[in-house]
Amino acid sequence: MDQEEFQIIGETPDLLVVDKPAGLLVHPSKPDGTRTLWDGLRELLCYEIANAGQVSLINRLDRETSGLVLVAKHPSAARQAAIAMQEGKITKTYLALLCGHPSEKFFSVDAPIVRQGEVGPTRIHLKRMVHPCGAKAKTHFRVLQNIENALGRFAMVEAQPVTGRTHQIRIHASHIGHPVLGDKIYGPSEDYYLEFIRTGWTPALEERLLIRRHALQSAGLKIMWKGEPLEWKIGWAEDLKFFMKDVEIDS
User: Fold this and answer.
1) Which domains does the chain have, with CATH numbers?
2) How are beta strands 66-72 and 216-225 bridged, if at all?
3) What tens digit of pLDDT does each residue of 178-194 get?
4) Integer angstrom CA distances of residue 116 from 28, 63, 75, 129, 205
5) Are 93 and 158 in contact (CB under 8 A)?
6) CA-CA distances (angstroms) from residue 205 to 46, 100, 195, 198?
7) E strands of 125-227, at which residues?
8) What's the pTM value of the predicted model, to 2 decimals?
9) Tens digit of pLDDT for each residue in 47-83?
10) Which residues are catalytic?
């Protein structure tokens, strides 16, 4: 993987923040030789690794989710960052395009999440769902702007997960009836995901989902580090801006 496949957003002696593009795996999941963000970071930080450093990914993003990933460059930083994450001292902000227009500008979803296979049958092993038996999960949403154009009705939203459950924002958005645009699992039908696994991306799927990946971006990270606040922000990914065409975006 070339370094150009991810962009360095910020760096300190302890930490590195990169912008991961959609489609790039964060960490190897199969021994098939697929290049990942982790591989690229090991090459980028080869000097640090040779001098007792390491590559530790503090927050993980789904393959289709783009945006900011926080990386610790040595074991001590990894421990401190992991503790901060565990204690909820790292604030994460996401941008997303939701289908339809939510009725409120500010709202929270407080709904527990469980792996679907633990409470009933499922055709998708990794799928989660809202269920009373699940782990506590809460997400704050803020509608930045409702838009409507030839492609449909969408809401540009900012989402802040209070907890860190797998697929949390996508599940909570779907739970309130406004799934993330392009979501193959939690969108209009999980059949789209199963079809995608069988056939790959096709014109038929594009016609129904409109976008190759789910419209979710990790856009902000904030951490108190050695007594100093550190913060990194990015805007909308270019493929998501496509859905805002012909719309005057509020500042």
Assistant:
1) 1-87 (3.30.2350.10), 89-245 (3.30.2350.10)
2) parallel
3) 999 999 999 999 999 99
4) 24, 20, 35, 6, 24
5) yes
6) 41, 19, 8, 12
7) 128-130, 138-149, 152-161, 216-225
8) 0.93
9) 788 887 788 999 999 999 999 999 999 999 999 999 9
10) 62
